[in-house]
Design goal:
By secondary structure, the chain is of the alpha+beta class. Helix content is about 20%, strand content about 20%. The chain has one domain. The protein is built from 1 helix and 2 strands, in the order ββα. The N and C termini lie far apart (about 30 Å). Pfam families: DUF2652.
Amino acid sequence: MDLGLKLITHYGPFSEYKVGGFTKLYGISVIKAHRLLKNSIGSDEYVQ
């Protein structure tokens, strides 16, 4: 099994909140970054 690495950079406003001992980020830019990480696009490189 080959492992791959995805690198996503994003910009825009975001907020944070704490849950237990973790700090979570949320906002439109964070949601878009997560969608890019979880996509099934066949290409190795793309720009949004």
